[in-house]
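Researcher: I've been going back and forth with a colleague about how LRC43 protein might be arranged in three dimensions. Neither of us has a model we trust, so I'd like an independent prediction. The organism is Loxia leucoptera, in case that matters for your notes. Sequence below.
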Amino acid sequence: PGSVSAAFQEYLQHLGLHDFPCGLGSWNKSRLNASRSPRAQPVGLEEAVPPGEETTEVLLELLRDQHSPWALPPDCSPQAQSLREVVVLAPELLLGSRVFQLVKSLRILDKGVEEVDEGLLQFQQLEELILSANHISRVTSAHLPRTLKVLELCYNDVDDLQDLCAQPPPELQHLGLGYNRLCGPSQEKHFTVDFWPNLVSLDLSFNSLTDLLGLVSQLSTLQNLRILLLQGNPLALIPTYRGFLVDSLPKLSILDDIYIWAEERQQFHGLAKQPELIRSEARLVVSIGEVTGLPNPEDFQQLEVGSEGPVIACTYFVTYQF
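Model: Here is an independent structure prediction for LRC43 protein. You can compare it with whatever you and your colleague have in mind.
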């Protein structure tokens, strides 16, 4: 599937919501009619199940019993099981697009999704959207439900945030953009309180961000930010990187998965007022553990003194591309 909506429709087919024991059919026809006509059943009386139909207890047991041919595999999410049970209890939810109202968390991982389409707006109660390990390069904020609190886009091809920041979900608390293709300073300007007033957690790890001073000036406006991941970016190679961030963002609790203790804050106190210590250079140490398929130069250095044999010199060099 190329879009989020197409991937979700494929997911629904996998769950078999329209098939026995879920869905709408002869096994629960009278219940569906009763839900459409609430006055058909006298108050205080239980409706007898007509011949050929099944009770909700029997249908639910067919979903829950591990030995049932209609049970989901053990590795399926609890949400998938809950969704199937809900449509057994209320089969009328399958009419139209009402089933979308049941979904608060949507996880579509490694399904080849390239587009966050406007069909996502059908999920009017959606709070968590996980789209990791796909092929998404741009996200249009107009296609995101306003109720969204968690948006995870790690391991994608996102290289520009302009469309995402046009009308971002106002209640978003976590934004995951790790392992993408962001490079600044054109992208660093998007991480301010103007776009993310309630952001608590931000993952920008393993991108190509280089302007530490510029990024910190934007992040300092996020008053609710407590968790920040920047490891894997070129700016993380700066010698004063961690100390400068710790002192510049006093409300931060966790940086690069490491808790910030009071002792560390005291150690780096005042570093934020010394931006001249941040140099656009880094010292990189590379250790090569093992090289196979090449002669060892040391073998040719053991020739006896005065030997008339030819002297063979072997040298090697390694090229690094940045």
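Researcher: What would you highlight for our discussion?
Model: I'd start with this: The radius of gyration is 29 Å. After that, consider the following. The chain has two domains: 1-40+48-102, 103-282.
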